[in-house]
Write a structure and sequence with these properties.
Helices cover 70% and strands 9% of the residues. It is mainly alpha-helical. The protein has one domain. The chain has a two-stranded antiparallel ribbon with strand order 1-2. Strand 1 and strand 2 form a beta hairpin.
Length: 115
């Protein structure tokens, strides 16, 4: 259970770092004044914990064992949300702009609402 808490915390920290770097001019407003930002952080935590669960279920070991395996899984799962939320299944051109369709669409909507 501690592994899930650690990976969820890492997922939240990664998303907070992303939001803070994106909204450098008013990071406080982006975080405290936006429920979308907190939803994004929560979803990052859930995706990270889901990735950890999948690694355990499918016995992904990265060639490690013991504590090294646990920490490797935590780090890999904790940053997995970054890749997931940047995935687009396909791209559509609308009005001269390319729009990614997939989890990246959700990320774009949340980041616009956070600012």
């Amino acid at each position: 259970m501690l592994d899930y808490a650690a990976v969820g915390t890492l997922g939240v920290l990664v998303s907070l770092g992303e939001l803070l770097s994106r909204y450098r001019d008013s990071p406080r407003a982006a975080l405290l004044g936006s429920s979308a930002a907190w939803l994004y952080c929560l979803l990052n935590a859930l995706v990270s914990m889901s990735a950890l669960r999948l690694m355990i279920v499918f016995n992904v070991t990265f060639g490690q064992s013991g504590d090294a395996l646990a920490w490797t899984r935590i780090l890999a799962a904790g940053i997995s949300a970054i890749g997931f939320f940047r995935t687009s299944i396909f791209t559509v051109r609308i009005g001269g702009q390319d729009l990614g369709i997939g989890p990246v669409t959700f990320l774009q909507v949340i980041l616009v609402r956070s600012g």
